[in-house]
Design goal:
By secondary structure, this protein is an alpha+beta fold. The chain folds into four domains: about 45 residues, no CATH class; about 220 residues, no CATH class; about 325 residues, no CATH class; about 200 residues, no CATH class. It contains 25 helices and 23 strands. α23 runs antiparallel to α24. The radius of gyration is 35 Å and the shape is globular. It starts with a helix and ends with a helix.
């Protein structure tokens, strides 16, 4: 039957379109004909008995809420807070993880990553999940599902030369990158196939609109002009469209052909070697599904595996987003999951609050409900009416919450971006709400309306046998259970917030075990500036002489990474007598390193000057590393064999444990090595000074400029290294603290409301007790005891949940125990104190009731 009517509708619509296309009828006439056919059907459905009853329910619910404005306002505000927080957090996650790339036809763009299994010899730049150039070309040339497949290296740093050298973040791309993304330039041209014909074939670059305006003043003559990137001359081929910042959450400021990798990063041959360094993104053909894309690419992957023994490839194919790398998605999923869980807990407390309000309101509507039942209303009819009221409250709360949350969270994201640590790249993702956010908010709103409205509706619609009996049975138990739920959930949020705030306090007040005062760090990238090993060694020798001669400088030292710097250097060492290698964090340092930061060597000796200059096979261990490798033994004279087994290192000293790798952890497996000439392209400097930081920084920049005026140098206080750890901790702790404070506010309001309602329902009982001789203290203590029973039970359950949740936060506590006594004792006591105060206010009001007035109360 449906097919028949579908064919009739198709023929009728075809006739109408033919009338319009031939010019015999106007567009307005066609619209009138369509509306005249649709409206009778719509009117029939809207005017039916079901719609009439539904409309009556809405009108009655609106009138009922209007008669109780205080109840309506409190319920709507509580839900607005809960739904708004959830919608705001989902908006941020949607912008970072779910939203498609801001490019034309983004729904056809597909990101591709891989997981390689087996014993494979391969170098990695960025991520194991990326592809080599040869692999990209294989997938590009042999697939049958893409109109184009592009590749790019996502995180490329380069120094823009000129009068004001500037550090830029960009991408090295295949020459079809902009064509696949369907992103034509705003000025000039993008890359052509000839630009990628051979390594180093074409030194062209496309710059972002933001860089064009900020650095070149929006000069249209920049197209065809020259710029210097890492000391190589590039021709500006074009300027990207405004707002286009690449295909990663980190905004790109320039794009160059990936065949120019050797010019921008000359230390390694990523382009021609067996390196994981490229991300693949393709535009699927019309009508091609993701399943078909996966199947087609799997055939190519199997062929590559067959050509390389012991290799097995698993492809990860999904719609392209800004955060596409598996490691990024996993980290975001963990953090986002924790945020969503915390926001869901706040919403659960809000729902319990409103459910208690509805239960209290239903108790006052028993007469109305009894009359409805007596005149023939069914229980289902009453439930539907009460759920309609709940839905109206939820819709109002959801709408208000979203209206407040969307601009608030956009402002929060901007503030976070503005307060990222020094040197952080520019982040770009759109947190404006889209259809996903609106659907999520709508589903959440309807689910909320059902969650907090169903139990009170079922309770209120039960046939009432006795008013006295109804007041004393299930409703009271349900209200107390809801209070217990609020307290348990609030306890979890408050303990999590307490742990994170304690971690933030540790990060702010930490004594890392070494000196950070009056020390400047000096960093630059010789490797990316084309320095050879010999030239870098000569530069570093001359720079040492100039730094030591600078006024106010006390002592200088070299190191591959500075203490608590955002850099990890790891390797594996095998201990004599063991077969399995051990993971170790390493740092190459000059002998002065330990004096500059005041880190004593407890046993053995320091590196000699000759050992540091030649890179001798000697090592200095930390205390905990020595105990870990050789418990109850003397580590001096012991040997470590490196991962390839070609070099043995002799342990010559043991340094004091300190938090040089991560705040809160001084027992990291950490080994210091002598640098030698091979490390000079990546070495940084630390300078201990007696003058102020400003004059010292000026002298340092002058010393570097005297040797290489085009080298971009970054001079910062060593204490600035703490900013990275503090910023992360501050953001997470602020979010957790805000959710915890909101949960505490809602829970305290809920406890107050339940106790106040219980007192109002027991006025006559209180009057009788006082008339029989009970004093005010006895009545108050009775009310407080009964009020605190669900609070204590909920708190105990919440503490049990906290023990599990705290394990998830261990990486952000900076050495604070996951069972920190200060938090696990202080938070429950605080929550109990707030609950006691919220219960005391109505209890105190109860003892002021005049017994004679209470005896006449009904």
């Amino acid at each position: 039957m449906s097919c028949k009517w579908g064919r009739i509708a198709e023929y009728a619509l075809g006739d109408l379109l033919e009338e319009y296309s031939t010019g015999r009828r106007s567009r307005l006439w066609v619209c009138r004909q369509v509306l005249s056919a649709i409206l009778p059907v719509v009117n029939f459905k809207l005017e039916g008995p079901m719609f009439s009853a539904f409309w009556n329910d809405i009108r009655y619910a609106a009138r009922a809420l209007a008669k109780n404005p205080g109840f309506a306002v409190v319920a709507i505000l509580a839900l607005a807070l809960g739904i708004g927080v959830n919608a705001g957090i989902f908006t941020v996650l949607n912008g970072a993880v779910l939203k498609e790339l801001p490019t034309p036809g983004a729904n056809q763009l597909v990101s591709i990553y891989q997981e390689l299994r087996g014993k494979i010899e391969r170098h990695v730049l960025g991520s194991d999940s990326m592809f080599s150039t040869a692999e990209y070309e294989d997938y590009r040339d042999h697939n049958h599902v893409f109109t184009g497949l592009a590749a790019y290296a996502p995180f490329v740093q380069a120094t823009l030369g000129g009068e004001r050298p500037q550090e830029l973040w960009g991408q090295l791309t295949s020459c079809n990158y902009f064509d696949v993304l369907n992103e034509p330039p705003a000025l000039g041209r993008v890359f052509t196939a000839s630009d990628c014909a051979a390594p180093g074939a074409s030194g062209v670059v496309v710059i972002s609109d933001a860089l064009w305006r900020s650095r070149f003043g929006g000069d249209a003559n920049i197209v065809g002009g020259k710029v210097i990137l890492n000391r190589h001359l590039f021709t500006v081929a074009g300027v990207a469209q405004p707002g286009f910042t690449g295909t990663e959450v980190m905004a790109a400021q320039f794009w160059a052909p990936f065949s120019m990798q050797g010019a921008l990063s000359p230390a390694f041959d990523f382009y021609g070697g067996n390196w994981s360094w490229l991300t693949l993104i393709g535009r699927s053909k019309p009508g091609v599904s993701l399943e078909l894309v996966r199947a087609d690419l799997a055939v190519i992957a199997a062929r590559i595996d067959a050509s390389q023994p012991n290799r097995s490839t698993r492809l990860d194919v999904f719609r392209a987003t800004l955060l596409g790398m598996p490691e990024e998605r996993q980290a975001t999923s963990i953090v986002g999951g924790l945020c969503v869980a915390g926001a869901a807990m706040v919403l659960l407390i809000a729902c319990a609050n409103v459910a208690n309000l509805l239960l209290a309101r239903a108790a006052g509507r028993q007469h109305e409900i009894a009359i409805r039942l007596s005149v023939g209303a069914t229980r289902w009819r009453l439930i539907r009416q009460l759920l309609t009221e709940s839905m109206l409250i939820a819709l109002a709360g959801g709408g208000l919450g979203c209206l407040l949350a969307f601009p608030a969270f956009s402002a929060i994201v901007r503030v976070i971006e503005e307060h990222l640590p020094h040197g952080s790249p520019i982040l770009t993702f759109n947190v404006a709400p889209d259809w996903r956010v609106l659907v999520y908010a709508l589903i959440l709103t309807f689910a909320t309306g059902i969650v907090f409205g169903l139990a009170p509706a079922l309770r209120a619609s039960r046939p009432i046998v006795s008013g006295a009996l109804a007041r004393r049975t299930g409703g009271s138990l349900l209200r107390q259970a809801l209070v217990g739920v609020q307290v348990a959930v609030c306890m979890v949020l408050l303990v999590a917030a307490g742990l994170l705030l304690h971690g933030l306090w540790v990060a702010q007040t930490v004594d890392p075990g070494f000196s950070m005062k009056n020390i400047a760090t000096v960093s630059f990238g010789l490797e990316g500036q084309g320095y050879t090993t010999e030239r870098a060694a000569a530069f570093q020798r001359q720079l040492r002489q100039r730094l030591e001669a600078a006024p106010g400088v006390e002592i200088v030292s070299e190191s591959r990474s500075t203490p608590l710097g955002d850099e990890y250097n790891g390797t594996q060492f095998t201990i004599q007598g063991e077969a399995e290698p051990r993971n170790v964090q390493i740092n190459w340092v000059s002998p002065e390193y330990f004096s500059v930061i005041g880190l004593p060597i407890l046993r053995g000796r320091n590196f000699t000057k000759t050992e540091a200059e030649t890179g001798a096979p000697v090592a200095i261990l930390t205390e905990s590393t020595a105990r870990h490798f050789w418990p109850a033994q003397d580590p001096l004279g012991k040997t470590l064999r490196d991962s390839d087994g070609k070099r043995e290192l002799e342990v010559v000293g043991v340094a004091k444990d300190a938090q040089v790798a991560k705040i809160g952890y001084s027992d990291t497996i950490y080994v210091y090595l002598a640098p030698g000439p091979k490390q000079q392209t990546r070495m940084q400097w630390m300078v201990r000074y007696t003058a102020g930081f400003g004059p010292t920084a000026t002298a340092i920049r002058g010393a570097v400029a005297s040797l290489d005026p085009d080298l971009l140098v970054d001079v910062q206080p060593l204490e600035a290294n703490l900013d990275l750890w503090r910023s992360i901790s501050r953001i997470v702790a602020s979010l957790a603290g805000s959710l915890g404070a909101l949960a505490l506010l809602l829970a305290s309001i809920g406890i107050y409301g339940v106790v106040a309602f219980a007192v109002s329902r027991r006025v006559r009982e209180i009057g009788i007790r006082m008339a029989l001789g009970a004093d005010g203290g006895d009545v108050r203590n009775l009310i407080l005891r009964q009020a605190m029973v669900p609070v204590v039970l909920g708190g105990l359950i919440g503490i049990g949940g906290c023990a599990a949740v705290s394990q998830l936060l261990s990486s952000m506590l900076f050495g604070v125990s996951t069972y920190d006594p200060m938090t696990f004792i202080g938070v429950p006591l605080t929550l109990l104190g707030v609950a006691l105060f919220a219960s005391y206010v109505p209890a105190r009001r109860a003892v002021r009731i005049d017994p004679m007035v209470a005896l006449r109360y009904e």
